[in-house]
Design brief:
Length: 178
């Protein structure tokens, strides 16, 4: 992820902070919303200055966001190995990720955490929850690295429709560690 953030920050000159944040955090990029035209037609200052500037900014966002998603999709997919591309093609959400690099990165994150395709869904969920509950910050791990890995695990669990709090799993892992 670090290399992708670096690439995005160097490549995209418009809104680099927003785009790198989308890659760095939860891999979401909210679409811009069109500004509402002021209701008072006599308020010339608001219409001429604020609303027109907001509208111009919205139009730039509306052009750049799809270009970013498409460009990121092509770069990320081009960097994937053949084996990962095969796994991506069989993922149920792959078609919806077409030309959307953010969605593609979310799918890759899920696939990388679910490396063993032979396991049943329950086994996969248990493996992910076990990794989550036993995850610790290593001696040579910075707080930033720990935070990024932690967010990655939370993202995967959310994508799979699992919740972090599951008493049965927590009690089982606690008993194993005693």
């Amino acid at each position: 992820m670090k290399q992708i953030k670096h690439y995005v920050g160097q490549t995209y000159t418009k809104f680099p902070a927003e785009f790198t944040q989308a890659v760095a955090d939860l891999l979401y990029l909210l679409e811009p919303e069109a500004p509402q035209r002021p209701e008072d037609p006599c308020d010339v200052f608001t219409i001429d200055k604020e609303w027109k500037l907001d509208l111009k900014d919205y139009r730039v966002h509306a052009i750049e966001y799809p270009a970013f998603r498409s460009g990121l999709y092509n770069v990320v997919l081009g960097q994937c190995t053949d084996a990962l591309q095969d796994k991506l093609k069989f993922h149920p959400n792959f078609e919806s990720a077409n030309q959307d690099g953010i969605t593609l990165l979310r799918i890759i994150t899920v696939i990388l955490y679910l490396f063993d395709q032979a396991c049943h869904q329950e086994d996969k969920m248990m493996m992910i929850k076990t990794a989550f509950y036993t995850f610790k910050q290593g001696n040579n791990m910075t707080a930033q690295q720990y935070y990024e890995l932690f967010l990655g695990q939370v993202t995967v669990m959310n994508e799979l429709g699992s919740s972090i709090s599951n008493d049965a799993t927590a009690f089982t892992i606690a008993e194993e560690n005693n």
